[in-house]
């Protein structure tokens, strides 16, 4: 039971990978990529968690009270925002592809099959 | 493992699978927003309010909106779309 | 490779990797009950050393300040890439009418939507600014506040329509926010070098506990990030929504 967070992180990564592999639409594929990414968020935050500890913000409770790990939270926080911008870049590429080739199905976009 | 955390983790796992298994992109946007909301609640329960804040804004508002704009644009630039 | 062959290959790869994944799972520490050396060190030292109460901000903008500069540049690069890719084929003009899908009419905005947006949009932008400015004290910071401001700008579009939105939020301002914010961050790092310290050393006075200006360099670089992220999200929305407009004659290839 104690392994549930790690299992959920693994599950998100695996199902996102499965979705990317079987996707027939590039926009859907980018959504699957974000699911894979959220697996890493769950893994990192679960690794920094501690039973009975509060958030690492000492405005309500004084410094010195038990708190969870702020380092992993800082990592995940920046990654969420930067990840959104990278998702936007991928979407722009997909849009461009659609304008050039008129389709977003990876199977129809084999380079030799014009 | 408290029931709350276990339930939230399972919810995130289920909504994540929902995003992948919703094959139609326009419906997938809604699944993504639901997944973002589930992640937000999970991060709050893991004592990470900063991260939950970030996930709330980005995961439930900004990214689904970008996807919607892209889907609208795809529809507009292909009038002879076969759906 | 056919989808079928790809599926078989992926299943074989998953079967090959499964023992490793199981071994890692068994070796993982118990959830919520293992030492956190770095986190505990930050929680013990940073409140006294940096006079900030939000440890996540302290890690982001001081202890890991150089890494965050890297993240900032990644954001800048991704946004610039998006803009270049989208404008490369569309041109820089502003479409003056919405593109329609076949002969489907465009529904007019209802007065309730306009009223709600006029009330909520300023409040959202103000709240975003609050979140940016109180990074060292309460949950929030430049990344979250910037995203709130950037998304709040969309309420102007919902309430006032596309053309008013483009007039009220000119692209030039967003470009300046994006570049200026990232520039402020980097300049703050070089500013520390002028005093003889290393890049991004916290050279400013630390202030008092609980003050909005406490933390020395932290509020400054955090504000830079807030500017850059709000500019980035504003630009992303602007570029993607411009894609849904009717192109001006002769711009579409």
Automatic annotation (TrEMBL), chain A:
It is found in: Cell membrane. It is a multi-pass membrane protein. The chain crosses the membrane at residues 6-22, 29-51, 71-95. InterPro entries: CPA3_antiporter_subunitC (IPR050601), NUOK/Mnh_C1-like (IPR039428). Its main location: membrane. This is Sodium:proton antiporter. The keyword Cell membrane applies. Keywords: Cell membrane, Membrane, Transmembrane, Transmembrane helix. Belongs to the CPA3 antiporters (TC 2.A.63) subunit C family. It comes from Roseomonas populi. The lineage of its organism: Bacteria, Pseudomonadati, Pseudomonadota, Alphaproteobacteria, Acetobacterales. It holds the Pfam family Oxidored_q2.
From TrEMBL, chain B:
It is found in: Cell membrane. Pfam families: MbhD (PF13244). InterPro entries: MrpA_C/MbhD, Nuo/plastoQ_OxRdtase_6_NuoJ. This is DUF4040 domain-containing protein. It comes from the Bacteria. It comes from Roseomonas populi. The keyword Transmembrane helix applies. Residues 10-74 form the MrpA C-terminal/MbhD domain. Keywords: Cell membrane, Membrane, Transmembrane, Transmembrane helix. The chain crosses the membrane at residues 52-74. It is a multi-pass membrane protein.
Automatic annotation (TrEMBL), chain C:
Residues 1-23 form the signal peptide. It comes from Roseomonas populi. Coiled coil: none annotated. The keyword Transmembrane helix applies. Belongs to the CPA3 antiporters (TC 2.A.63) subunit B family. Residues 115-233 form the Na+/H+ antiporter MnhB subunit-related protein domain. This is Sodium:proton antiporter. It is a multi-pass membrane protein. Keywords: Cell membrane, Membrane, Signal, Transmembrane, Transmembrane helix. The chain crosses the membrane at residues 73-89, 110-130, 142-162, 183-204, 216-238. The keyword Cell membrane applies. It is found in: Cell membrane.
